[in-house]
Amino acid sequence: MSLIVQKYGGSSVGNPERIRRVAERVIATQRGGDRVVVVVSAMSGVTDSLINLAREVSASPTERELDVLLATGEQTTIALLAMAINSGGARAVSLTGAQAGIVTDGVHTKARIANITPTEMQRFLNDGQIVIVAGFQGQTMEGQITTLGRGGSDLTAIAIASALDADLCQIYTDVDGVFTCDPRLVPSARKLDELSYEEMLEMASSGSKVMQSRSVEFAKKFGVPFEVRSSFHHLPGTRVIEETMSMENVVIRGLSVERNQAKVTIDGVPDRPGAAAAIFGALERANIVIDVIVQNVSRTGATDISFTLNKDDLDHARRTLEPVVKEIGARALLAKSGSAKLSVVGIGMRSHSGVAAKLFACLGAAGINIEMISTSEIKIAVIIDEADIARAANVAHDAFGLASGPMLAS
Amino acid sequence: MSLIVQKYGGSSVGNPERIRRVAERVIATQRGGDRVVVVVSAMSGVTDSLINLAREVSASPTERELDVLLATGEQTTIALLAMAINSGGARAVSLTGAQAGIVTDGVHTKARIANITPTEMQRFLNDGQIVIVAGFQGQTMEGQITTLGRGGSDLTAIAIASALDADLCQIYTDVDGVFTCDPRLVPSARKLDELSYEEMLEMASSGSKVMQSRSVEFAKKFGVPFEVRSSFHHLPGTRVIEETMSMENVVIRGLSVERNQAKVTIDGVPDRPGAAAAIFGALERANIVIDVIVQNVSRTGATDISFTLNKDDLDHARRTLEPVVKEIGARALLAKSGSAKLSVVGIGMRSHSGVAAKLFACLGAAGINIEMISTSEIKIAVIIDEADIARAANVAHDAFGLASGPMLAS
User: What is the pTM of this model?
Assistant: First the structure.
């Protein structure tokens, strides 16, 4: 008898009809002979309505109280799902984050899980019940309600799977799994059967928004294998697992695309200690998230520093940096919107050269100009004009033969 | 510095605008130099919406899960009110029933408060904060969420006032206080400044639906004085307090009216042990609530038993009793809908005769027929035709001089 943790997102439990369908799936899982813990999000739209209510009573709602408010969203879903399961002929019991023993730090609206005491979950599981846990929430050691921030329900599921030493953790969502590339962009994109945590992290942080990076990082840290799959049919999804020997043979796992990028170049930065710190320190204090940073070797006592960011932050970044540019004595601040990032991801590229050459060659042959290049151990990312992104993704997808199956090391 | 517990019902916190107004009132109370604990209900309509959601996922929702679901209603209000107070310049913190230390028995959907451990409330009060507590809810010793059933938020307020030894408990509602009679029925009805717990109980259980009897009984048992008043203006309401010597001089405090009554008479019940038990046992097993019971002295070896009940239960009662009537060998079952109950209430009538005579005389003079009579120590109730109830209430209100002030013992 296995122990399975299933997580259902907001659209999977978006209305009573869908909740009843999830109940059927959960009951079928238990009837298949397994013990089941289910983690659920708030019904889609509920969290936004609660935030709007909060804004109607306060221009800047207290974060502690926002957590008390938002926690009602998942609490509503757990009760409804438990009722639906009970009335479908199985036995279920709901637990809030606090009741499930999920203890977090005290950073309201973006708390971190400190530990899980699964006594209560185990008690109900041992009694043969299906346990329904509210995702996204926990409580501090002192009993204050907290929420985990974006992607929090996935994190709850993976942390519970770890605490209970579950055999399987299934993340049910509204997509079929992780694809070699966004199918809306690359029609020949193929669903992946499996990939490693590291590959998933590069795919996620590069814009394949199936899951937040923090949940994948948690799974990696504690070695929790999980599967991303659709709650709207019964086909298998994508398994995300520890890297295996055979994975090394897959040079490229997939492509990841991020649109709406902007690029800033600071021209003629004097080559002395503290110049880069002044630039990125100012951006950090302004809460501007930046992505790729490129600095070339200095040849003339001055260098150029370029970085990318979300285009919505561009004006703010420009206003933040103008005084800094003067202060450090740089020549000019150049800003450009309308960029996109294409990343090629695969564990196998660590031990196989030629990936960069092949990527640059296929883009060059298609007449696509590369504005910036950035690499990590298992990723090569290029910044290109946003107008070229669909074409670039398709030529790279073809060049690496991703439609027909994984590209194996020759 | 006094400690004040204020309770606001669902209509007082029915929308963000009203929540902001409650916040202003609470802040003003604290600025007046008092420490404040606020108990709130769910926003009006929310509990019904949640019950409808439950019905959409299950024909008979599990009671444990119904409690988990319904508890979100008050949890939403406490967070919103705390935010509104914080953004109004004072400091507030919200607590669920569980966090406030409210421990109940395990009877889901109608739990009883077992005890309150006010440590957490006191900690925040000592820190100078306004404490906002979710009414209607608690948790069992084992940490299961429970709700207290109808009138539960009033009960929470009174129990907290008792546990904290508060100086004052104010029940804010959408009426101005307790009246000598329902003002919609008797235009000359007058708001009472004060009345005793016993009088309030007779007024409440006789149909003046300002508060549920159980909250008044709890207040009486633990000697918690409270005030019923309106949240829509700043006029004083009605104080409900321990009986005082001077109250004895007030013969009649007020009238209470209950419409929609039905009357059942079982004719020719053999005068032997067990006959009454068979009748009322059957009604109890069918969950039919009955009110006044009258049995006359037996003269012929058989007697008549009459009782009243809500007219909506009449058909069910008839179906329940028909086999019982045969079984015990009674003659007939007579049922009549369209009755009403008028009660005259006052502590002073204990020591003053003549109240019954005066009531029957004024009704007789108005040509109103009395169908049944029932008395308690501080109440005389008559069952009359529902068509006569407004006229009966007005003539009795006049006869006892209730419009101009309390009727004092001569």
Answer: 0.86
